Structures are given as C-alpha cells and as structure tokens.
C-alpha cells in the first residue's frame, strides 16, 4: 500500500529518487503514465496490466475506448528503477504534468502520483473542504 507525501527533487536529467519505503515493492519494474488531473502515476507493471486488462478487452468500435487507450498507452513509459532507486520521467510526461525541479510524490493507496509542487499545493487547498464534507452519501459502501 502506498501512503504519505514526499518531496524529492527532479534532477537535470528528469530523474528523482523514489521514497525509500516504496523501493522494494517497485524494484522489479514500474509504469509511469499520465493521469487525468495533470499529474503522473507510478504503478507496478503488474498493477498497470491488471488495471488496463478490461480496457484492452473493450471494443475498439467505441470511440472513447480508442481515445482513452491512445492517450494512456502512447505516453506510458515502463522502466526498472536504478540501483539508487532513481526513476526517469521522460520529457513528454514532465511537460504534461508541468514538472520542474520541485515535485511532490503522493501515495494514493494502490499507486503513487507525481505532481508539480505548486500544482499539488493548489489542488490540496482546493479540495480540502470537499474531502472534509464527504460522507456515506458519496461512498455508501465505505
């Protein structure tokens, strides 16, 4: 399970060091992909494969299926973190998420998210009151 908020720095080659507590779980390989909120996700290859299994089996005759498959897969990047636990974010994904030097890595239960630090601060501030007001009407089974 991925939990917590971390603030590693992105180096000039677009790399950052994974938080130490996640390295063992991610050492076999990861997929870095875009998310809908102008952030990036990191998942294990197995988790990414499981998440996209249904999408891969969806009918290509549905336009939204094709579009989602393209936008997700065309920019996804699989890799194995190096021995120091560094992950490289390709330039196209850095551009999409607006990543510069200051980034935030958040644990989101089944994945990590990578945010530009300023964008994360803005997102957090904007959604804090909505989070406080969520109740069983929003998530009746939780």
UniProtKB/TrEMBL annotation:
<dbReference type="GO" id="GO:0003700">
    <property type="term" value="F:DNA-binding transcription factor activity"/>
</dbReference>
<comment type="similarity">
    <text>Belongs to the MraZ family.</text>
</comment>
<comment type="subunit">
    <text>Forms oligomers.</text>
</comment>
<keyword id="KW-0805">Transcription regulation</keyword>
<dbReference type="InterPro" id="IPR037914">
    <property type="entry name" value="SpoVT-AbrB_sf"/>
</dbReference>
<dbReference type="InterPro" id="IPR020603">
    <property type="entry name" value="MraZ_dom"/>
</dbReference>
<dbReference type="GO" id="GO:0009295">
    <property type="term" value="C:nucleoid"/>
</dbReference>
<protein>
    <recommendedName>
        <fullName>Transcriptional regulator MraZ</fullName>
    </recommendedName>
</protein>
<dbReference type="InterPro" id="IPR003444">
    <property type="entry name" value="MraZ"/>
</dbReference>
<dbReference type="GO" id="GO:0005737">
    <property type="term" value="C:cytoplasm"/>
</dbReference>
<keyword id="KW-0238">DNA-binding</keyword>
<feature type="domain" description="SpoVT-AbrB">
    <location>
        <begin position="76"/>
        <end position="119"/>
    </location>
</feature>
<keyword id="KW-0804">Transcription</keyword>
<dbReference type="Pfam" id="PF02381">
    <property type="entry name" value="MraZ"/>
</dbReference>
<dbReference type="InterPro" id="IPR038619">
    <property type="entry name" value="MraZ_sf"/>
</dbReference>
<keyword id="KW-0963">Cytoplasm</keyword>
<dbReference type="InterPro" id="IPR035642">
    <property type="entry name" value="MraZ_N"/>
</dbReference>
<dbReference type="GO" id="GO:2000143">
    <property type="term" value="P:negative regulation of DNA-templated transcription initiation"/>
</dbReference>
<dbReference type="InterPro" id="IPR035644">
    <property type="entry name" value="MraZ_C"/>
</dbReference>
<dbReference type="GO" id="GO:0000976">
    <property type="term" value="F:transcription cis-regulatory region binding"/>
</dbReference>
<keyword id="KW-0677">Repeat</keyword>
<feature type="domain" description="SpoVT-AbrB">
    <location>
        <begin position="5"/>
        <end position="47"/>
    </location>
</feature>
<dbReference type="InterPro" id="IPR007159">
    <property type="entry name" value="SpoVT-AbrB_dom"/>
</dbReference>
């Amino acid at each position: 399970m991925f939990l917590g908020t971390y603030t590693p720095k992105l180096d000039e080659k677009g790399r950052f060091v994974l938080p130490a507590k996640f390295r063992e779980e991610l050492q076999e390989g990861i997929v870095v992909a875009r998310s809908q909120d102008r952030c990036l996700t990191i998942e294990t290859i197995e988790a990414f494969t499981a998440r996209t299994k249904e999408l891969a089996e969806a009918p290509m005759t549905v336009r939204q299926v094709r579009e989602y498959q393209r936008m997700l897969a065309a920019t996804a990047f699989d890799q194995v973190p190096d021995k120091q636990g560094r992950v490289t974010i390709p330039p196209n994904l850095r551009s999409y998420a607006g990543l510069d030097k200051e980034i935030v890595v958040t644990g989101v239960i089944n994945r990590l998210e990578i945010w530009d630090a300023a964008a994360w601060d803005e997102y957090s501030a904007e959604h804090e009151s909505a989070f406080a007001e969520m109740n069983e009407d929003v998530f009746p089974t939780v």
